[in-house]
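[09:14] KT: can someone run the structure on this one? pasting the chain below
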Amino acid sequence: MVEKLSSEQREEALGRLKGWNFDEAADCISRVFKFKGFSEAFGFMARVALEAQKADHHPDWSNIYDTVTIRLSTHDAGGLTQKDIALAQAIDKLLA
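[09:31] RB: done, structure tokens below
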């Protein structure tokens, strides 16, 4: 099983991520993505789904028209792990 990140590891990892926010109560990171319309948002979700499937690590997310909200936490570990950081980085690369 993957280990939760220590507070030092979490801070260091968050320093490498742009736009992701840490929610201490939920021990997760989240980010809101805004697009030009529903089709663009849905296309982004499809690309994220492929990355998540490859990583065998699936986000908690929602879509409201042109906005996608993603929350990452490793449920098996009870909080934030390196798997979440890696998936956040892969998601960010989709937008680069």
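[09:33] KT: thanks! The chain has a mean pLDDT of 96.
[09:34] RB: yep, looked fine to me
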